[in-house]
Design a protein that fits this description.
Blueprint (H helix, E strand, L loop, with lengths): L16 H36 L1 E2 H4 L6 H4 L7 H22 L1 H23 L13 E2 L3 H14 L4 E4 L3 E4 H17 L7 H17 L5 H34 L24
Antiparallel strand pairs: 1-2, 3-4
Amino acid sequence: MSSTGTSVNLSLPPFTRAIKILIALNAGIFFLLMLVGALGFGTQAERCTRTFLLVSSDVVHGHIYQLVTYGFFHAGLMHLLFNMLSLWMFGSMLESAWGSRKFWEFYLFGVAGAGITTVAIAYTFGSVVHLSPDTPTLGASGGIYAIFMACAMLFGDREVLVLLLFSIKLKYLVAAMAFIALVSALGDASGTANVAHLGGLLFGYIFVRFVPRRGLTLSFSESYFAIRNSYHRWKRKRAASKFQVYMRKHEEDPKRFFPEDPDKDKKDGPWVN
């Protein structure tokens, strides 16, 4: 529910490809665990689930995968529904603008960033925000708050309808949500992962502000091949220099066997895979 002007568009956002997959994964895991519990294997399901939730003390002892897996588990049906609705309403805006590949990078970056923030705060200011290293964290909220931040930065002047009662610009709504998360983190413990929410906002800002427009994958790929090709050129020139020294010692003209690099005076072209 958004618009580019002052009026509010009540049409529903599209179900984009990544959004469909994410909702299916989250809902599938939730109902699978419910089914396992209904069949009388609740204890085993809880033990298995505990392995994939974010527990700071586990992460620092090598369970790095929890920085991502915790984002696909939810504590209850309302928790799941609210997160998936938010993912659909706002995530589709980003995926439509960026494409599925970049959106996947961003979403996982936000989930992992929220997890890293949770671990860091648990071991530094945990007593201030009521967060113990042994407290489990779960839910997609870290990635969704990253989406909120990105939408506020890219589509901040769009208006959204809140509870079908009033409209507000997206940037102001996200600012209010950030303030609520901060106050809640500093206030009494409520069972809400407010630190993960703040971490999602932070890493959403970092991605939009500092990651190249092409995304992380293409940027790393181009950097890797540029370094690799520079290394191969250096090896080729080094081998040529050694060969020239060898031929001079034997009073031969090295150009007869090893001509100069034809690209010596040319600018470097695009990298080659």
